[in-house]
Hints:
Order of helices and strands: EHEHHEHHEHEEEHEHEHEHEEHHH
Bound molecules: 3-isopropylmalic acid, manganese (II) ion
Radius of gyration: 20 Å
Helix content: 40-55%
Structural class: alpha/beta
Number of helices: 13
Strand order of the largest sheet: 2-1-3-12-11-4-5-10-8-9
Distance between the termini: 18 Å
Amino acid sequence: MKLNIALLPGDGIGPEVICQAVKCVDAVCRKFGHEASYHFAYVGAGAIDRYGDAFPEITYQTCLEADAVLFGAVGDPKYDNDPTAKVRPEQGLLAMRKQLGLYANLRPVETFKSLVHQSPLKEELVDGADFLVIRELTGGMYFGEKGRLDGGDTAYDTNIYHRYEIERILKQAFEFAMRRRKHLTVVDKANVLESSRLWRQIAQEMAPQYPEVTTDYMFVDNASMKLITGPKFFDVIVTENTFGDILTDEASVVSGSMGLLASASIGEHTGVYEPIHGSWPQAAGQNIANPLAAILSAAMMFEYAFGMMEEGKAIRKAVAASIENNIVTSDLATSSKAFSTIEVGDWVAAHI
Length: 352
Ligand code: IPM
Ligand code: MN
């Protein structure tokens, strides 16, 4: 099959990790007889430098025309400490999500046997944890009306959710729960926030359509504690944009390193597959970043964009083998030698 892939490596360590993911996609194509074509486009700080826009029209068109987008990261420190900056790399990511209609962000968290002893959490708590966080991605405070009043001394962001936005993400969540262990946890702050009360109301309306799914409701503060004290409780978590952003960084601790967490963003147009770790500008160009999250994102791309489960599995097996054999970057190598980004990428590609 022909795979038409848009490549948006972005900023910081993005290009280095995406390069390793491409090696692995090519290895899968050789093994299974597919043919990948890649279409490069700028996003983030690189796109601002070139076009004055973090998600320029040409990048949008490249994404629309592709079957899948492999995305690295955006962000550059020169914008972080400048609250007056008019254009920011992160706007590129938000524009991409909004324009491609990517309302569902899937962030699976699993543990690797050979890594559980390295977790900052107790081994018996994390061993066997395996859950999926579904984060709403195109609504809420990220996109609600925001602004300044009083000559700049008052600032606001609006956490607004419409029924159709909540219904479509909950539908995804119930369906994923059906395909997994049939346990859905709806995370909100319904004891305080009106938007959360609407989420909970709609979830309660929909739950009877999925009688096999055990649905429970948890306040976000409690959920953040439960993720650390009992992550094995969870199967599928669904939550709004801001809560999902925060909880998934926290959840990455369960798997041992942020460098392991892959994600898929799906919705109306072409899906985007990306590591959740961000651009880590301090490490850019040093060949030390963990490429496994990007490589696992490529596995998600095969599974979700192309329905190629065997191809995804081939990548996952090679990644698990690299971890078992300690062919890992410094974030995961405690007592053993740390390998470089390229060495890990080459090893995984060779073992596909
Ligand atoms: C993420 C990131 C982004 C977000 C930033 C870079 C805008 O933290 O994908 O989780 O907040 O959504
Ligand atoms: Mn985040």
